[in-house]
Amino acid sequence: MVRRPVAWLVAVVLLVEGVFIAALNWFLGVVVDRQDMSLAGLDPDAMSLSSKIGGIVFGVYFLLCALVALLVAVRDRAPAGLGRVLLISAAVVHGLLGAFAVGLVSWTAFIYMIVVLALIVLLLMTYDAQERPGAGAASAGGKAGPDGPTGREHPEHPQHPEHPQGPEGPEGGPGGRGAPQDDAPGPVDAAAPVDAPAPVTPPPAPTVP
Question: Distances in Å between the alpha carbon of 140 and those of 136, 145, 158, 185?
Answer without folding.
Answer: 6, 9, 29, 54
